[in-house]
Design brief:
The protein is mostly helical and 212 residues long. It has eight helices and no strands. 85% of the residues lie in helices and 0% in strands.
Protein backbone atom coordinates (compact mmCIF):
# COMPACT_ATOMS: atom_id res chain seq x y z
CA UNK A 1 0.00 0.00 0.00
CA UNK A 2 1.43 3.38 -1.01
CA UNK A 3 2.02 5.96 1.69
CA UNK A 4 0.29 9.31 1.41
CA UNK A 5 2.84 12.00 0.57
CA UNK A 6 2.16 15.65 1.36
CA UNK A 7 5.07 16.71 -0.87
CA UNK A 8 3.04 17.17 -4.05
CA UNK A 9 1.63 20.16 -5.95
CA UNK A 10 -1.86 19.87 -4.45
CA UNK A 11 -0.73 19.90 -0.82
CA UNK A 12 1.85 22.62 -1.57
CA UNK A 13 -0.89 24.75 -3.11
CA UNK A 14 -3.23 24.19 -0.17
CA UNK A 15 -0.44 24.98 2.28
CA UNK A 16 0.35 28.23 0.49
CA UNK A 17 -3.34 29.10 0.30
CA UNK A 18 -3.64 28.56 4.03
CA UNK A 19 -0.65 30.81 4.66
CA UNK A 20 -2.19 33.62 2.60
CA UNK A 21 -5.48 33.28 4.46
CA UNK A 22 -3.74 33.36 7.85
CA UNK A 23 -1.67 36.36 6.77
CA UNK A 24 -4.79 38.17 5.59
CA UNK A 25 -6.62 37.57 8.88
CA UNK A 26 -3.60 38.84 10.82
CA UNK A 27 -3.52 41.95 8.65
CA UNK A 28 -7.23 42.65 9.11
CA UNK A 29 -7.09 42.17 12.89
CA UNK A 30 -4.00 44.34 13.41
CA UNK A 31 -5.44 47.06 11.14
CA UNK A 32 -8.68 47.48 13.12
CA UNK A 33 -7.42 50.34 15.34
CA UNK A 34 -6.80 52.30 12.06
CA UNK A 35 -3.77 54.03 13.54
CA UNK A 36 -1.89 50.71 13.18
CA UNK A 37 -2.59 50.31 9.45
CA UNK A 38 0.90 51.53 8.55
CA UNK A 39 2.49 48.93 10.78
CA UNK A 40 0.22 46.23 9.37
CA UNK A 41 0.99 47.14 5.76
CA UNK A 42 4.73 47.14 6.40
CA UNK A 43 4.55 43.75 8.13
CA UNK A 44 2.35 42.39 5.34
CA UNK A 45 4.79 43.47 2.66
CA UNK A 46 7.78 42.24 4.60
CA UNK A 47 6.29 38.74 4.62
CA UNK A 48 5.04 38.80 1.01
CA UNK A 49 8.36 40.14 -0.30
CA UNK A 50 10.21 37.42 1.59
CA UNK A 51 7.78 34.82 0.27
CA UNK A 52 8.31 36.10 -3.29
CA UNK A 53 12.07 35.61 -2.83
CA UNK A 54 11.51 32.14 -1.37
CA UNK A 55 12.76 33.18 2.09
CA UNK A 56 9.55 33.09 4.13
CA UNK A 57 8.60 29.95 6.09
CA UNK A 58 6.59 30.88 9.19
CA UNK A 59 4.21 33.66 8.24
CA UNK A 60 2.72 34.19 11.72
CA UNK A 61 6.09 34.48 13.45
CA UNK A 62 7.52 36.70 10.71
CA UNK A 63 4.46 38.96 10.65
CA UNK A 64 4.46 39.48 14.42
CA UNK A 65 8.20 40.12 14.43
CA UNK A 66 7.83 42.68 11.63
CA UNK A 67 5.08 44.45 13.59
CA UNK A 68 7.35 44.72 16.61
CA UNK A 69 10.30 46.01 14.61
CA UNK A 70 8.55 48.38 12.21
CA UNK A 71 5.65 49.85 14.17
CA UNK A 72 7.33 53.13 15.12
CA UNK A 73 8.53 54.37 11.71
CA UNK A 74 5.62 52.79 9.87
CA UNK A 75 3.12 54.55 12.12
CA UNK A 76 4.82 57.89 11.47
CA UNK A 77 4.62 57.30 7.72
CA UNK A 78 0.97 56.29 8.02
CA UNK A 79 0.03 59.33 10.11
CA UNK A 80 1.54 61.62 7.47
CA UNK A 81 -0.43 59.86 4.73
CA UNK A 82 -3.59 59.71 6.85
CA UNK A 83 -3.52 63.44 7.62
CA UNK A 84 -2.84 64.44 4.00
CA UNK A 85 -5.44 61.93 2.82
CA UNK A 86 -8.12 63.55 5.00
CA UNK A 87 -7.17 66.98 3.63
CA UNK A 88 -7.48 65.69 0.08
CA UNK A 89 -10.82 64.07 0.85
CA UNK A 90 -12.08 67.35 2.29
CA UNK A 91 -10.92 69.18 -0.84
CA UNK A 92 -12.62 66.64 -3.11
CA UNK A 93 -15.92 66.70 -1.20
CA UNK A 94 -16.21 70.42 -0.45
CA UNK A 95 -13.62 72.61 -2.17
CA UNK A 96 -14.38 71.35 -5.69
CA UNK A 97 -18.03 72.38 -5.29
CA UNK A 98 -16.94 75.95 -4.63
CA UNK A 99 -13.97 76.21 -6.99
CA UNK A 100 -14.18 73.65 -9.83
CA UNK A 101 -11.12 75.26 -11.42
CA UNK A 102 -8.99 73.60 -8.72
CA UNK A 103 -9.87 70.11 -9.98
CA UNK A 104 -6.64 69.67 -11.94
CA UNK A 105 -4.46 70.70 -9.00
CA UNK A 106 -6.33 68.43 -6.60
CA UNK A 107 -6.10 65.60 -9.14
CA UNK A 108 -2.31 65.98 -9.26
CA UNK A 109 -2.09 65.97 -5.45
CA UNK A 110 -4.30 62.88 -5.30
CA UNK A 111 -2.04 61.09 -7.80
CA UNK A 112 1.02 61.98 -5.73
CA UNK A 113 -0.71 60.66 -2.61
CA UNK A 114 -1.48 57.37 -4.37
CA UNK A 115 2.13 57.14 -5.54
CA UNK A 116 3.40 57.60 -1.98
CA UNK A 117 0.91 55.13 -0.50
CA UNK A 118 1.80 52.47 -3.07
CA UNK A 119 5.54 52.48 -2.37
CA UNK A 120 6.06 53.85 1.15
CA UNK A 121 5.25 50.71 3.12
CA UNK A 122 7.02 48.22 0.82
CA UNK A 123 10.09 50.48 1.00
CA UNK A 124 9.80 50.60 4.78
CA UNK A 125 9.58 46.80 4.79
CA UNK A 126 12.64 46.42 2.59
CA UNK A 127 15.00 49.27 3.59
CA UNK A 128 16.01 51.03 6.79
CA UNK A 129 15.46 54.75 6.16
CA UNK A 130 14.10 57.82 7.87
CA UNK A 131 10.47 58.75 7.31
CA UNK A 132 11.52 61.66 5.09
CA UNK A 133 13.79 59.48 2.94
CA UNK A 134 11.15 56.76 2.68
CA UNK A 135 8.57 59.21 1.35
CA UNK A 136 11.09 60.86 -0.99
CA UNK A 137 12.21 57.51 -2.38
CA UNK A 138 8.59 56.42 -2.75
CA UNK A 139 7.82 59.43 -4.92
CA UNK A 140 10.95 59.08 -7.05
CA UNK A 141 10.47 55.36 -7.52
CA UNK A 142 6.81 55.70 -8.42
CA UNK A 143 7.65 58.09 -11.25
CA UNK A 144 10.60 56.02 -12.49
CA UNK A 145 8.49 52.85 -12.54
CA UNK A 146 5.26 54.42 -13.77
CA UNK A 147 3.81 51.34 -15.60
CA UNK A 148 4.24 49.18 -12.48
CA UNK A 149 2.94 52.04 -10.34
CA UNK A 150 -0.29 52.28 -12.34
CA UNK A 151 -0.83 48.51 -12.12
CA UNK A 152 -0.32 48.47 -8.35
CA UNK A 153 -2.56 51.50 -7.80
CA UNK A 154 -5.28 49.76 -9.81
CA UNK A 155 -4.95 46.62 -7.67
CA UNK A 156 -4.96 48.60 -4.42
CA UNK A 157 -8.02 50.55 -5.55
CA UNK A 158 -10.24 47.50 -6.08
CA UNK A 159 -11.84 47.70 -2.58
CA UNK A 160 -12.61 51.40 -3.09
CA UNK A 161 -14.11 50.65 -6.51
CA UNK A 162 -16.27 47.94 -4.94
CA UNK A 163 -17.51 50.37 -2.28
CA UNK A 164 -18.28 52.93 -4.99
CA UNK A 165 -20.20 50.23 -6.85
CA UNK A 166 -22.85 50.16 -4.17
CA UNK A 167 -24.01 47.96 -1.32
CA UNK A 168 -24.43 44.78 -3.37
CA UNK A 169 -20.92 44.88 -4.85
CA UNK A 170 -19.47 45.75 -1.44
CA UNK A 171 -21.22 42.80 0.22
CA UNK A 172 -19.93 40.48 -2.50
CA UNK A 173 -16.34 41.70 -2.17
CA UNK A 174 -16.20 41.94 1.62
CA UNK A 175 -15.88 38.20 2.37
CA UNK A 176 -13.05 37.90 -0.18
CA UNK A 177 -11.07 40.72 1.40
CA UNK A 178 -11.75 39.55 4.94
CA UNK A 179 -10.39 36.10 4.08
CA UNK A 180 -7.64 36.51 1.48
CA UNK A 181 -8.01 39.64 -0.70
CA UNK A 182 -5.46 41.92 1.00
CA UNK A 183 -2.71 39.33 1.21
CA UNK A 184 -3.17 38.29 -2.43
CA UNK A 185 -3.04 41.92 -3.53
CA UNK A 186 0.21 42.38 -1.62
CA UNK A 187 1.51 39.12 -3.09
CA UNK A 188 0.90 40.27 -6.67
CA UNK A 189 2.35 43.70 -5.90
CA UNK A 190 5.40 42.01 -4.39
CA UNK A 191 6.17 40.35 -7.73
CA UNK A 192 6.46 43.81 -9.29
CA UNK A 193 8.24 45.27 -6.27
CA UNK A 194 10.84 42.50 -6.19
CA UNK A 195 11.79 43.29 -9.78
CA UNK A 196 11.96 47.00 -8.96
CA UNK A 197 14.02 46.54 -5.79
CA UNK A 198 16.40 44.12 -7.51
CA UNK A 199 16.94 46.72 -10.21
CA UNK A 200 17.64 49.33 -7.53
CA UNK A 201 20.20 47.10 -5.84
CA UNK A 202 21.97 46.37 -9.13
CA UNK A 203 22.08 50.07 -9.93
CA UNK A 204 23.47 50.93 -6.49
CA UNK A 205 26.13 48.21 -6.78
CA UNK A 206 27.09 49.48 -10.24
CA UNK A 207 27.38 53.06 -9.01
CA UNK A 208 29.45 51.99 -5.99
CA UNK A 209 31.81 49.95 -8.18
CA UNK A 210 32.14 52.83 -10.66
CA UNK A 211 33.05 55.25 -7.88
CA UNK A 212 35.62 52.88 -6.41
Amino acid sequence: MKKLSIDNPFFNFMGNLGDWMILNVLFVITSLPIVTIGMSLTALYQVTLRRTRGESVYVVREYIQACREEWKKSTKVWLVLLATGFLLLFDILYTLNLWPALSMGIGVLLAIWCFLFTYAFPLQAQFDNTVKDTLKNALLLSVQQLPFTILMIALNAIPIICIAGGAYVTMMAMPVYLVIGFSLTARVNSIFLTKIFNGMKRRICYEDSAQS
